[in-house]
């Protein structure tokens, strides 16, 4: 009887570990999208837009700007991304400091773990100056409104 209980407990433990392993694999796997959406000229990118772009790594014709704090970026980031913290806009004269840091040869995608800070960066830059924005042209500039995991070699968009 004791041997049967031990076998059952061992089998349950193996099953739990297998389920956990499958969950961890799925959670860290880029999402594939059956019907991807075309990328708009500017603005919001959702999973349906971005998953195909990031499936095999960072897209070559975009610069990915991580808008988290420098501390968050140092702790965990994806190689090839650029860190420009959105918190810079809490200080006066932010447009003059941030705009020179933005690349002008490629499209730009702002990212953060869930989207709100990326959206904030986008609108701080593209809102008109009279609305306290920087007033820059939004064409080719995007914010990713999706869950993002920062792996050393890629972003996982979910």
Question: Could you list some keywords that capture this structure?
Answer:
158 residues; alpha/beta; Oxidized Rhodanese, domain 1; 5-stranded parallel beta sheet; two-stranded antiparallel sheet; 5 helices; 7 strands; elongated; Rhodanese-like_dom_sf
Mean pLDDT across all residues, rounded?
86
CATH superfamily: Rhodanese-like domain
| Stretches with pLDDT under 50, minimum 5 residues | 21-31
What is the name of the CATH architecture? Answer: 3-Layer(aba) Sandwich
State the helix count: 5
The share of residues in helices is 25-40%
The radius of gyration computed from the alpha-carbon positions, rounded to a whole number of angstroms, is: 20 Å
What class do helices, strands and sheet pairing give?
A: alpha/beta
The largest sheet is: 5 strands, parallel
Write the topology of this structure.
Elements: H1 2-27, E1 43-45, H2 47-54, E2 62-66, H3 70-75, E3 82-83, H4 94-98, E4 107-111, H5 116-126, E5 141-144, E6 148-150, E7 155-157
Parallel strand pairs: 1-5, 2-3, 2-4, 4-5
Antiparallel strand pairs: 6-7
InterPro entries: Rhodanese-like_dom, Rhodanese-like_dom_sf
Protein name: Rhodanese-like domain-containing protein
Pfam family, one: Rhodanese
Write up what this structure looks like.
The chain is α/β, with parallel strands linked by helices and 158 residues long. The protein has one domain (31-157): 3-Layer(aba) Sandwich (Oxidized Rhodanese, domain 1), CATH 3.40.250. The chain is 35% helix and 16% strand. It is built from 5 helices and 7 strands, in the order H-E-H-E-H-E-H-E-H-E-E-E. The strands form 2 sheets. It has a 5-stranded parallel sheet. It is elongated and about 80 Å long.
């Amino acid at each position: 009887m004791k041997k049967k209980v031990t076998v059952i407990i061992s089998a349950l433990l193996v099953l739990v570990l297998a389920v956990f392993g499958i969950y961890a694999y799925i959670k860290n796997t880029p999402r594939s999208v059956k019907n991807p959406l075309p990328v708009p000229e500017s603005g919001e990118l959702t999973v349906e837009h971005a998953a195909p772009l990031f499936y095999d790594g960072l897209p070559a014709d975009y610069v990915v700007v991580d808008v988290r704090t420098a501390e968050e970026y140092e702790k965990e980031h994806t190689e090839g991304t650029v860190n420009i913290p959105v918190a810079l806009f809490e200080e006066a004269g932010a447009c003059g400091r941030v705009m020179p840091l933005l690349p002008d040869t490629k499209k730009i995608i702002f990212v953060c773990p869930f989207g709100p800070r990326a959206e904030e960066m986008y609108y701080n830059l593209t809102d008109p100056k009279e609305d306290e924005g920087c007033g820059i042209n939004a064409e080719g500039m995007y914010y990713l409104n999706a869950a993002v995991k920062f792996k050393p070699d890629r972003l996982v968009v979910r």
